[in-house]
Specification:
The protein is α/β, with parallel strands linked by helices. It has a single domain (2-190), classed as 3-Layer(aba) Sandwich (Rossmann fold). It contains 8 helices and 7 strands; from the N terminus they run E-H-E-H-H-E-H-H-E-E-E-H-H-E-H. It has a 5-stranded parallel β-sheet, with helices on both faces. Strands 4-5 form a two-stranded antiparallel sheet. Strand 4 (105-107) and strand 5 (113-115) form a beta hairpin. The structure holds flavin mononucleotide (FMN).
């Protein structure tokens, strides 16, 4: 299985990165894993809103987005990992999806969109947030972050397999054993 991990955390040693390490440590040894750290893409521009991608099927700016497009095409399963920022995905993750607009979605004449390039691939969401359980859910933090990702995946034809949330990260020195075990299970159950 070709697994693509897209890490949208601005931190290399944050909670998302730690959770991902735990998940990936339990993937099948035969799987091929490619990780894209969005924060490390040094030639990456914002979407300019030109909408040319609707006609060409990809962004007109051929910077590091090419690496992301190629990796998505090759993948069977994509792990979208992002900290919850303002009850949403991180700016890094949203910036990537804006650049993938026409690559993932074809808007047809009567405005009915059609998925392209990623339809049918599997996806897993991973997030972390400082709000503790159950308020991360009740106050629409992790829920809203996943909601936005879910909309993108719905229109892009990506199939959500499962989700992982690490809540209550404020002042958290080590990830509690319970969540490490959940991360291990995720790896065992979905990456094998
Ligand atoms: C700009 C910014 C916005 C944030 N917004 C939220 C939020 O809306 N809700 C929340 O619970 N935590 C929020 N947080 C806290 C992060 O989600 C939390 O620190 C998370 O563990 C970061 O993961 P990382 O260390 O892997 O980047 C925010 C943090 C930052 C830097």
């Amino acid at each position: 299985m070709n697994i693509l991990v897209i890490n949208g955390s601005p931190k290399s040693d944050g909670k998302i990165s730690t959770v991902l390490k735990e998940v990936l440590a339990h993937a099948a040894p035969s799987s091929h894993i490619e990780t894209i750290q969005l924060r490390e893409l040094d030639n990456f521009h914002y979407c300019t809103g030109c909408m040319t991608c609707q006609h060409t099927g990809c962004c007109i700016i051929r910077d590091d987005i090419v690496q992301v497009e190629t990796a998505i095409k090759k993948s069977d399963l994509i792990i979208l990992a992002t900290p919850t920022h303002w009850g949403n995905m991180s700016a890094l993750m949203l910036g990537m999806f804006e650049r993938l607009f026409g690559f993932l979605l074809e808007e047809r004449p009567k405005g009915i969109p059609k998925a392209r390039n990623a339809a049918g691939k599997k996806v897993i969401f991973v997030t972390a947030c400082s709000t503790p359980w159950p308020f991360n859910w009740l106050l629409n933090q992790s829920r809203s972050c996943f909601g936005r990702l879910q909309e993108i995946c719905k229109y892009s034809g990506l199939k959500i397999c499962t989700t992982f949330v690490l809540p209550g990260t404020a002042g958290m020195a080590e990830i509690p054993e319970k969540y490490l075990q959940k991360a291990q299970k995720l790896g065992e159950n979905y990456l094998n």
